[in-house]
Design a protein that fits this description.
Layout lengths: L4 E6 L4 E2 L8 E5 L4 E5 L4 E8 L5 E11 L2 E9 L3 H6 L15 H7 L1 H11 L3 E10 L2 E9 L5 E9 L2 E9 L7 H4 L3 E2 L7 E5 L5 E5 L8
Length: 215
């Protein structure tokens, strides 16, 4: 079970790409600042996402289908995390803002918490490891579900947004690396983001061009 509360309203957001795509295409979403390959134009749902520390954050789920294959990108917006935590009515003395800045921990721990939620759903986890896309750090899982379908998951944190890619396919389907590896992150100018680090391992964020080495 996905640990979110869904609002069953399908909406259209600011995107570029074919309105009625035929086959796989590069989907660009300027509102949530990502790109991904989808097999069809996705439906979009607004969600409320309860975090590890009891706050509730806004998000969207972008879902596209191809036969029995289901592909989704979930984007959770942590950019207002401090104010959302300050407004909580379910905080305790231990995690009150006066004692500890749990809003920061909530964001920092969001990748691990999302991965934990997938493990809690059950199934056989055959891959569970750190990963990166354009050097943006994250985590990947591969899970064989109770019905023998397979789920391929990527989780990344960029710009205080959490991105969760999920490809769930029938037992006979091949690995879904073409979807998992296609996620990318864009800046306000629409340029793809690629992380780089200085000699002290401090993050330097830079634009990405087609002729740069992607490793």
């Amino acid at each position: 079970m996905r640990l979110v509360w869904l609002i069953p309203t399908v909406i259209i957001v600011g995107i570029s790409g074919p309105v009625a795509a035929q086959g796989w295409f590069g989907y660009v979403n300027e509102i949530d600042s990502f790109t991904v390959n989808f097999p069809a134009e996705p439906e979009v749902e607004q969600i409320n996402y309860p975090s590890e520390y009891g706050a509730v954050f806004p998000g969207r789920v972008y879902t596209a289908r191809s036969g029995e294959n289901v592909y989704s990108v979930t984007v959770i917006d942590y950019r207002d995390a401090e104010n959302i935590h300050l407004a909580r009515t379910n905080s305790t003395e231990a995690d009150s803002p006066e004692n500890y800045q749990y809003w920061i921990i909530d964001v920092m721990a969001s990748i691990a918490y999302a991965a934990h939620n997938y493990r809690e759903r059950g199934g056989d986890v055959s891959y569970d490891a750190w990963a990166h896309i354009d050097r943006v750090p994250g985590h990947q899982l591969q899970i064989t579900n109770a019905d023998r379908s397979r789920t391929f998951v990527g989780i990344y944190l960029h710009g205080r947004r959490l991105y969760i890619t999920d490809a769930t396919v029938p037992p006979s389907a091949p690995p879904q690396g073409h979807f998992q590896q296609s996620i990318g992150f864009i800046d306000d100018a629409g340029e793809r983001i690629r992380y780089d680090y200085d000699e002290n391992w401090h993050l330097v964020r830079s634009g990405w061009t087609q002729n740069q080495n992607q490793n």
